[in-house]
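note to self — DONT lose this again. spent like an hour looking for the file last time. sequence + predicted structure for the chain T wanted, 220 res
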Amino acid sequence: MKKAVCLLSGGMDSTTLAYVAKNIGYDILALHMSYGQRTEAKERECAKKIAKHLDAVDFVEISLDYFKKFGASSLTDMAIFVEKGTTDHANHPNTYVPFRNANLIAIAASYCEARDGDAVFIGVQSGDHIGYPDCTPAFIDAMQQVISIGTQTQKEIKLLTPFVSMTKTDILREGLRLGVPYEDTWSCYDTEDTACGVCGSCLSRMKAFFDIGVEDPIPY
């Protein structure tokens, strides 16, 4: 069996992507990284549940607490309020964590190489292209080149982003087809017990469920 490192945040996109990876024949090496974000505990809880649902062959959790020390993002600096919905700062959302995905992908590639894996899956999608430069196709292409140059494996480790041109609604439709347990996922940037329903991530999730005409199973 081929093995894939799946970056599991506990959210909709990464969870659906892990189900896609499993469905196309990969054994799952689940990797969850906490970085001092507001909903850290809830995301960790969800990621563990999803890894169990997927019968992941391994689950590794890593703390990147230096992001909290760096700050400059409302996700890691509690003095900065999480923006509500779409704002005048859409091109510079305060929920952007500086160069986060480069860190996550680099660690995932290390894990993949160490376990003789074949691929790294990360759930970037089209809605992230504006305001999140480390989610764009150009960035992913550059990171693939870095992985190819910087690893010793005879087989190339592929950085796979099947959702990079898809909308949240498209992703949800695919997840429902695969039976993804969305009740065990979390998208809210701000709260852990009840989703706030007003942050950009909540609104994007709510719109996807509305578009398809299915009730979102998490509490708001």
